[in-house]
Specification:
With 405 residues, this protein is of the alpha+beta class. It has 12 helices and 11 strands. Strands 1, 2, 3, 4, 5, 6, 7, 8, 9, 10 and 11 form an 11-stranded mixed sheet that branches. A hairpin with a 2-residue loop joins strand 7 (185-188) and strand 8 (191-199). The radius of gyration is 35 Å and the shape is elongated.
Length: 405
Amino acid sequence: MVATDPRALRPARMRPGDVFKVGATGLRTRPLRAWLSALGIAIGIAAMIAVVGISSSSRAELDRQLAALGTNLLTVQPGTSMLSGEEGVLPYESTAMVDRIDPVYAVAATGSVPGTNVYRSDHIPEGRSGGMSVVAAELDLLDTVGAELAEGAWLNAATARYPAVVLGSAAAEQLGIVSVGDGVEVYIAGQWFTVVGILEPVALADELDLAVMVGWEAAAAYLGFDGHPTTVYARAEEQYVEEVAGVLATTANPEAPDEVEVSRPSDALAAKNAVDTAFTGMLLGLGGVALLVGGVGVANTMVISVLERRSEIGLRRSLGATKGQIRLQFLAESLLLSALGGVGGVLLGTAVTAVFAAVREWPTVVPYWASVGGVAATLFIGAVAGLYPAVRASRLSPTEALTAN
């Protein structure tokens, strides 16, 4: 009787390259099914990457805007009296008093001119002014709120005393005025005012977009303006913004500080960003559902692959392949299929983000954690989806597999 060396009976070990080759064999032999299954994974990952990328690009644009506009703008407006329930009135000296606060380096005010409408023609019926408001504006307003001119010029010491106006962007659009020049006028309170400028949209003071701005002296002389400011804009040094906000009400109206409302316009943009973040969470949930559907598609493909390849499994088992090697083969195939969909989804989602950001003129931002996490998620789903088919394939006996139809 001849003794047999036990080491000669050990199955050959599969190196990583061998695992990759046998795993890729199933994908190459059924390319259409593999591509369709990978597409399901890719759609889910692309949706998640695009949602995260677009949201991140939007936040980057917001940060860019705030960096340019500054987060140190504060506004003071009259509030409602707690005793009478009537709207308060800011004193004439409000702007000057706010300007005395040391960290405040820029102050300007606007004053509402109630009961005054704006028309493009004196033939338009009274009352059809499209919601535009007429406000008296101080000369430092443009620099204080960070506004820019789209056309013409801002009010100066001369034009502020005469019937001249600067239009907000929305007001100019409603009036159908796209440029300034000789003969461009608007009709206010029974007289014509020359349009000397048009503003770009004002991000931190969007109430000015639908406003028609008149010089402080001209508003008093031609429109009966009472001289009370209705909004005081103040720029403070960044490190003292909170402290300044705490004393603005008392400074602007010492006799009735409870009738003063103080706000920070940049907070409104931050609140908008919070709403966008919540919406992003919902879209990420939808992307997760799409990813789950893709995982089910991978599992279905692998189960069918096991059923169709029982003869192959039986042949490999009869030639000495172990149950572990069969499991590893089908698990590798599932992971390769998922990785193909994951990488494709990341590329597709990044492309969608780049196109959308370019159209909106935003910076393109795709967080690295989203790309890495997307691929990792697909590999995890691929492992879970391929586990049962791999175990099922390894449990087929060589005889059963070879005699299967």
